[in-house]
Amino acid sequence: MSLPLTKVTIPVLVVLGLFSISVSAQGLETQAGIDPEPVIEARTVQTPDADIKARLEAIFAEIESLSSVSVAVKQGVVSLGGSVANEDQAERANNIAIRIQGVVTVQDGIERTLDLDGNLSPMLDQARADMDRWINALPLFLVALLVFLVIVMIGHWIARRTSLWQRMLPNPFLAELGAQAFRVAAIVLGLVAALSLLGAGALIGTILGSAGLLGIAIGFAVRDTLENYISSIMLSIRQPFRAHDHIVVGDHEGLVVRLTSRATILMTVDGNHLRIPNSTVFKSVILNYTRNPERRFDFELGVDAEDDPIAAMHVGVEALSELEFVLAEPAAKAYVQTVGDSNIVLVFQGWLNQEEADFLKARSRAIAVVKSVLEAEGFTLPEPIYRVRLEDASASLLDTSSSSGDDAASSSAAESNQEVAGERGDAQRLSALRDELDDADVSPDRHIEEKIEEERAAEGGEDLLDQSRPIE
Predict the structure, then answer these.
(1) Is there a contact between 159 and 182 (Cβ–Cβ < 8 Å)?
(2) Helix/strand/coil for 231
(3) Residue 159: which H helix or E strand, with range?
(4) Would you give the DSSP letter of residue 2?
(5) Beta strand 252-259 pairing with 263-267
């Protein structure tokens, strides 16, 4: 997976910026007139042209590759001639000449022959010298390598002592992190010791400086990964939840399967796996339903505006209190939510123990029971009322007026009979409802928890949740 453009360009710009600062500092030193090379003194302060010529010829005679260079000096101006094998030798002759005291400038008239023997022989001589030096230093290299391997092996052996790190750092994630850090520190220590034995102090500084720049670049490139890693450390220390806990993280809800070094794994109530990055979990609001087994449920029911709301609340609370899964303490209660045009909205509340009763089952059962009891006690749960206005209906009203008187007596008799039957039916309905209270099955559904336990046992993967540590 390719990194975004900004993640690549920022580290590059940081490195280029540091490099430009270094180059600028070197340029300032040069402009300030800092010249580490010593000035070659002639015999007198006021050096004649003959002395400059003699001095240069003597120097060139001692250098085999510059022995064929000729020198002419007039008024402090040095003219070099002759021939050399390559550009480097000509540049060397010019640098020597300009450093002689009394020289005003140097005119380069040296011919670069670029002959094979003149260029190949110095390279072969340098290769032989380097080979001899490496052969002489081979025992020291072997000792340095041995020191490096011994330190690294000791560090690796200590890092593998799991019991030692668990005693030092009780948290398993921190114990693993400490072991890895010790292993890396041992490698760095072995490298520094080996280079020190070889006398490569400057190289040590270069390596450490490069490591610092590399660390800055990597920090910019993987800042999201580092943030997630640090969040994993904090979650493993704080332990905000346990396996099987029913939690809500932001907009995500489910039961905890495990906590890894990268993500928190949940199983939703639908039985699906959900992986949430630990950085998101650490920064989000976590709602834990399992932490406190007692949980309150509530629901709304509306009664007719003509009914007594106090009597309806009393009947509903009494029905809730008779439910086996509703706790006696805190006691069930009800209150008036709103008063509308055609109804009064009542809110009923009760408490249950989630370890003994399923929340959704219990709430659903409570709604059904309270609704049925209110209807059986004669309270009306109104439906929306619509008023329809009819125009030009006078004729139809006159046609039906004559028959309305004849039907009045029969309708009143039918209503009285219906009331008697209704009272008898309501009594039977109340009796049946009370018989059903003991038959309600609201036991918790353990299917999701069983699936979680099977996965935890089967996968055997990383889990930073520690049952022995207190929950934050």
Answers:
(1) yes
(2) helix
(3) helix 116-159
(4) P
(5) antiparallel
Cβ(242)–Cβ(467) below 8 Å: yes
**Helices 49-62 & 87-98, crossing angle to 10 degrees?**
140
Give the DSSP letter string of 179-191.
HHHHHHHHHHHHH
User: Which structure tokens are listed for 102?
Assistant: 């009394």
pLDDT in tens, 305-357: 888 999 999 999 999 998 989 999 999 999 999 987 788 999 999 999 988 88
5 vs 363: CA distance, rounded Å: 52
Mean pLDDT across 225-250? 86
1-48: per-residue pLDDT in tens? 434 444 444 444 444 444 444 444 444 444 444 444 556 555 545 568
- List the single range of 315-319, 360-364, 459-463 with lowest mean pLDDT: 459-463
What is the three-class DSSP state of 444? coil
Segments of 165-283 assigned E as strands: 246-249, 252-259, 263-267, 273-277
Q: Are strands 105-108 and 263-267 parallel, antiparallel or unpaired?
A: unpaired
Rg (alpha carbons) of the chain, rounded to whole number: 47
